[in-house]
Design brief:
There is one protein chain. This protein has 438 residues and is an alpha/beta fold. The chain is globular, with a radius of gyration of 21 Å. The strands form three sheets. It has a seven-stranded mixed beta sheet with strand order 4-5-6-3-9-12-13, with helices on both faces. A four-stranded mixed beta sheet has the order 7-8-10-11. The protein has nine helices and 13 strands. α6 runs parallel beside α7. It has a single domain, classed as SGNH hydrolase (Rossmann fold, 3-Layer(aba) Sandwich), CATH 3.40.50. The longest helix is centred in the C-terminal third of the chain and has 19 residues. The structure holds 2-acetamido-2-deoxy-beta-D-glucopyranose (7 copies). One 2-acetamido-2-deoxy-beta-D-glucopyranose (NAG) binds next to loops.
């Protein structure tokens, strides 16, 4: 079979260039941008450099952080094994495998789950094919049980879990909510003004689930209005965390954090409150700095905080999510109309995703080395996601996009987020497996 490769195109997927009005409107809800509203919190809450909470600990400066030996008393142990659920070690690398046919009906539908956000509700939006729903991730060397919502909620009794990242994190949480709704309908107890951060409560289990929008994990000033129109480069503080999640960090038992595509944007980089460079600015007096520097620094700052011995939050670090735009990018007519998964070897990671994942792996290993306790896990979904070009909304991010229109009319495609139900549901199988066999 002929090797199919996704076009390796410009790594600058997200451009902050001024678009004409129409494109700007289209771009609002979009894709790589996720949500492009004014960054409400970080511009209001200024945190002093390095210190996150008023009474919080100083950020260590990895990688020179010395391995601090602390012995945990039993009550300090991770909360993962106080449920009586049998735990064991993973039998294999669950992230290496293939997508296999799954003829059982999907775990939820647009009927059974009422909380699917419109842009990911492909069924309701009229996507004509449904084959993409009938696959499940299967590791080569061991079996991966299907996520058991009852067991998960039992496990999470009296606990709190947060997903911290960009709109892909919200995509993941939605999948989890839909699956859990088979057992209990969560009550939404909080949302921010822009509906980017939300919190739900499962009353019968005293379980709190949050999603916190923090696409950089760092303190960032984002100058975009409600129409997604940028009036200036993002100001990114590479050595300061976004206080929205950092101040609340110790209230969580589990977190899933991730970085990603936002780091490709035009941004001015700060360290110690001083400009140290700029990505994509083309300004003479600013040193052009590549995004990988900022990405590495961001993960190092975040992981340095997380692995601080005074913290004991079980943490998943999710690797980057590849998109599947073909014959163009999100803003240049790219689309994703495949209807079946790739097989291993049929597709290669693009440069930008490879660079990001390599940084994630290196910083993860680096952080793990300095942490002398369990509770930091790599959630390495990059490659298994790469194999699913068929799982994106494409034009069906909108409601019946072609109704009353010529099929050739240009419709904005989303080849980054995932349809619900869809491939991202398997991420929960993987998460459960890691929780049980951590
Ligand atoms: C669910 O999707 C189907 C099309 O697959 C559509 O006919 C129906 O109206 C949708 N229902 C809801 C409640 O979204
Ligand atoms: C949950 O908390 C309640 C009240 O503190 C306690 O009675 C119960 O044993 C706890 N359950 C678990 C599984 O920790
Ligand atoms: C709910 O869980 C919290 C810990 O997250 C605990 O402090 C509280 O007592 C629990 N409440 C009940 C009613 O079990
Ligand atoms: C950070 O800046 C302050 C002055 O603003 C300076 O005193 C301090 O030495 C700087 N720290 C580092 C690590 O560069
Ligand atoms: C760069 O030059 C512009 C225009 O001269 C000026 O406004 C800005 O403050 C300069 N930035 C730095 C970091 O020197
Ligand atoms: C995808 O779209 C392209 C361009 O419109 C078309 O040539 C191709 O046949 C389509 N593929 C599928 C599987 O529909
Ligand atoms: C890893 C670990 O400590 N697992 C234990 C969790 O709790 C069950 C029941 O108490 C034990 O059997 C496991 O050994």
């Amino acid at each position: 079979m002929k090797k199919m490769k996704l076009a390796i195109t410009n790594t600058q997927i997200i451009l902050n260039q001024k678009q004409n009005q129409v494109l700007v409107k289209i771009a609002i809800c979009l894709i790589l941008i996720g949500f492009t509203y004014h960054f409400y919190f970080s511009s209001l809450i200024q945190i002093p450099p390095v210190i996150v909470a008023d009474d919080g600990p100083k950020l260590p400066s990895p990688p020179s952080l010395p391995p601090t030996v602390v012995s945990l008393t039993p009550s300090d142990q991770f909360p993962e094994n106080n449920t009586g659920i049998q735990q064991g070690s993973l039998e294999c690398d669950i992230f290496t495998g293939e997508w296999v046919r799954d003829r059982t009906s999907p775990r939820y539908t647009n009927y059974s789950c009422s909380t699917i956000e419109p842009h990911q509700n492909c069924m309701k939006n009229g996507r004509p094919d449904s084959d993409y729903i009938h696959w499940r991730w299967s590791p080569f060397d061991c079996s991966l049980p299907i996520f058991d919502p009852k067991m998960f909620l039992h496990y999470m009794r009296n606990k709190s879990m947060a997903f911290i990242g960009d709109s892909i994190s919200r995509n993941h949480v939605q999948s989890l909510l839909c699956i859990l709704s088979q057992v209990e309908e969560a009550i939404e107890v909080y949302h921010d003004e822009e509906y980017r951060s939300k919190r739900w409560f499962f009353g019968s289990y005293n379980f709190t689930l949050s999603v916190i929008w923090s696409p950089f994990l760092l303190k960032a000033n984002i100058f975009e209005d409600n129409d997604g129109h940028s009036s200036g480069a993002i100001e990114l503080h590479l050595d300061e965390l976004n206080s929205v999640w950092a101040n609340e960090f110790s209230n969580f038992n589990y977190i899933m954090i991730s970085g990603g595509k936002w780091f490709l944007k035009t941004a001015i980089y700060y360290e110690n409150n001083t400009i140290i460079g700029c990505h994509n600015c083309n300004k003479e007096n600013l040193t052009e700095t590549t995004f990988d520097y900022a990405y590495r620094k961001a993960l190092r700052t975040a992981l340095g905080f997380i692995t601080n011995p005074s913290h004991k939050v079980y943490t998943f670090l999710r690797t980057t999510t590849p998109d599947h735009f073909e014959n163009g990018e999100w803003n240049t007519g790219g689309y994703c109309n495949r209807t079946a998964p790739f097989k291993d070897g049929e597709v290669n990671l693009r440069d930008v995703d490879m660079i990001m994942r390599d940084i994630e792996l290196e910083e993860f290993e680096n952080a793990k080395e300095f942490m002398n306790r369990p509770g930091l896990r790599l959630f390495d979904t990059t490659r298994l996601s790469l194999l699913r070009p068929d799982g994106h909304p494409g034009p069906y991010r909108g409601f019946h996009p072609f109704d009353g229109k010529d099929r050739d009319v240009h419709v904005q495609n989303d080849c980054l987020h995932w349809c619900l139900p869809g491939p991202i549901d398997s991420w929960n199988d993987l998460m459960m497996s890691l929780l049980l066999h951590g």
